[in-house]
């Protein structure tokens, strides 16, 4: 497993060694000891996946304290553009975003720190997106910012979105409860 830092502190792209032979392929997308050695979260009490068709945009989502969480995300089938927006007050990248393609062929993952909004856009005909979180979903802590309020250049200006996502507040109107805590 290879961990690559991104421009957002605490956010990492994780590349995995893929084993292939005549039967197919084996992808080990989590190894507790390896994550511990890298200083990454290993306790993900909730895992879920979504199936989306092309041009679906999900996000930009987060949970507020005290149920804020770290996410470990990957694309099990197809291709997605995965996006992270830094919402941590005091962060040198506050309001900036990171966009990275996650796909099933590469089997890469993204480790998203607390205090960041997350979303993705489906590039392929179908995608299966896997999300692991360090806290369980809490409706009373659920939050988000509007998908087109952060300067992100999405592949389309007319994505397929949920009613909930359509009415999320814009970044400039969002009073962030997240504080940046630099790593030492």
TrEMBL record:
**Catalytic activity reported:** dTDP-4-dehydro-6-deoxy-alpha-D-glucose = dTDP-4-dehydro-beta-L-rhamnose
Tell me one GO molecular function of this protein.
Answer: dTDP-4-dehydrorhamnose 3,5-epimerase activity
Q: Please name the CDD domains in this protein's record.
A: cupin_RmlC
Cellular component GO terms, alphabetically? cytosol
- EC number assigned by the record: 5.1.3.13
Kindly list the residues the record flags as site (Participates in a stacking interaction with the thymidine ring of dTDP-4-oxo-6-deoxyglucose).
137
Primary enzyme class: isomerase
- Pfam family name, one: dTDP_sugar_isom
Q: Which domain of life is it from?
A: Bacteria
Q: Which SUPFAM superfamilies match?
A: RmlC-like cupins
What Gene3D superfamilies does this protein's entry cite? Jelly Rolls
One GO BP? polysaccharide biosynthetic process
Outline what the protein does.
Catalyzes the epimerization of the C3' and C5'positions of dTDP-6-deoxy-D-xylo-4-hexulose, forming dTDP-6-deoxy-L-lyxo-4-hexulose.
Q: What is this protein called?
A: dTDP-4-dehydrorhamnose 3,5-epimerase
